[in-house]
Amino acid sequence: MAGSINKIDSDFLKKDIRYLKGVGPKKQSLFRRIGVKTVEDLLFLVPRRYEDRTKITPIKDITPGENVTIQGRITLKGKRRLFGKEGFGIIVDDGTGWIEVVFFVKNMRNLFSVGEKIIVTGRVEFDKYYQKPIFIHPEYSIIGKDSNDEIVAGMVIPVYPQTEGLDSRFIRKLVYEILKNDLDFPEYLPRFIIERENLSPLSDSIRKMHFPDTIEEGEKARKEIAFRELFQFFWRLNLERENLRKAYPLSKKGTLSTKFLENLPFSLTEGQRRVIKEIENDIEKNVPMQRLLQGDVGSGKTVVAIYSMLRAVENGYQATLMAPTETLADQIFLVLLNFVSGLPIKLALLKGSTKTKERRQILHDLKEGDIDILVGTHALLTEDVEFYKLGLVVIDEQHKFGVLQRYNLWRKEEEYTPHLLLMTATPIPRSLALTLYGNLELSLLKERPLGRGKIETIIKVERKRDEVYSWVFKKVLKGEKAYVVVPLIEESDYSREKGIKDLFNLYDYLNVIKPDGINIGVLHGRMKTEEKRKVMEDFRAGRFNVLVSTTVIEVGIDVKDATIMVIEHADRFGLAQLHQLRGRVGRGEKKSYCILIMSEGVSEEGLERVKALKKYESGFDLAEIDLKMRGPGEFLGTRQHGFGGFRVFHFYRDRDIIEKVRDYVFKLRENKIKLSEEEQLALSKLKERLKEAYYVA
Fold this sequence. Notes:
Layout: E1 7-8, H1 10-13, H2 24-33, H3 39-43, E2 49-52, E3 67-82, E4 85-93, E5 98-103, E6 117-127, E7 132-136, E8 139-142, E9 156-159, H4 168-178, E10 182-183, H5 191-196, H6 202-210, H7 215-242, H8 255-263, H9 270-283, E11 290-295, H10 301-314, E12 318-322, H11 326-339, E13 347-350, H12 356-368, E14 373-376, E15 390-395, H13 403-410, E16 419-424, H14 430-436, E17 441-445, E18 455-461, H15 465-477, E19 481-485, H16 493-498, H17 503-513, E20 520-523, H18 529-541, E21 546-549, E22 562-568, H19 575-582, E23 592-598, H20 604-615, H21 619-630, H22 632-635, H23 655-669, H24 677-693
């Protein structure tokens, strides 16, 4: 298919990858695993790294552990047994020495003939049994027999993300065949930016990103594509800004918010006072507030949110708070009830599990204006949820919602745009926050409220499990409470094979070894809301003093006398998740403990995460480490959540251009740069393209 065209146009770029020669339905599903659905996706698939194969290394000079390219003749072939597996091997000799090349793929014997000239490239391993270097499953090309010899050796080679059944060599051949044709990508960037930044045409950048003359040229080309991608992202945010309606100014400061602050059983931190002032400055205007509040675990975001919602109510408007799970919505609602006790506020809670009759009454009261503050989950997004006058929207753990969901709630008010406060306990470095939420202002809450106890983080290996729980039980018998978190609810073949403790397995184990006076409860995501609520109330009231749970307690749970957190197989959790779990303790004055039990055979990455958690207490420090380790998409929970659909832009590699690109878009939006008619037309076309590709009201 690819070889039959002379010019690649937009129609070809939109073709499903399955229609390219050699792909088909089976490989189509494999390509989807690495995010490739269309031909265009394939062309924007960034090589994971490059290998410089311009140099042929003599066999006598190769060293185990290095990636090298050799060229020689096949002098022998035959069956080979290695690592207890049947395989096939060939001997390659280049006149300076010989090396064995082994494959563990069936029916390879007929692919090679003694006497043929071959190019082999890959990592050199070491055969401990024969004490010599060896290639295992390298790339190869038989000269004069294989097509595309030129993309195996003699040039800088792209190495792509792989998945089982889809290797880098196949992807490279596919891209190479497509790039034999002319590329025709429209240019959307204004010419003055292209000239000032010395950018190559997009088509040239794509070619060089895949097949550069040098590794440095490949990285430069990738960065040029990232620049354009980032420009389009910020331009899309600009379109969203253009479509904002006016907001209700919440300028009146009445008795509700004043009494709320006066009745708090603690003093606000300096950070809370600063953030409240920032929010007040925003909501008193008729321009909709768009503010992201980042607060470390236990920093007091909820108090700030409640104050903001009361400001809306005392100005005659409604407020709503959306949480990602029913457990978190329940917790926030209970906290809200407690904090506004004695104030003339009408509250309601709306969830997917809310019974039909109750839901009908809530919707009626909401539309009539008889509910001041509505707390809920995704259930708030349905069309039949109508407000009387919605003045403020608060979204908690907002990165767990898609962009569309966020805007659908924000646009519930038809004539005006409500003020918007997004909150997250996953601290995001400023430069990433600018990228994700380029049209939002940022507020930070770093310090913990006064009177919070210190948390000591302890690492233990699995064989010390009995010792750990013996210590935990002694502390609990003295009046403390403990959480025990496990990664799985039920046992499976995988968990048995890997020796992973599941919830019920561990619950049974603890009940066998516990002394009298220890009462153990269970909490997990499959339980009904009322069951979860009862378990938490029993734990809070002391009817249970040990709670075995899954990560359902990750956010929103606040039991002040819970001082011990044990995390089983801690190395299997993400760093941000570990920090969230640790934040469930240390909420009272007593010293608290977070005990991390490591799996047998812990991976290097898992060990690195756990060591980082022990070293750093600040979620902001941990966020930087997590981001470096996992990248933005994974760092935020899942790849698709909120990260703008970037294919080429990489936060760490491209952080130097974020402010620059954002500044260009700002100057264009404010008409501070004079454009030619041609440039204005290009931006108009970009606007239309983005309207098709993204949600813009």
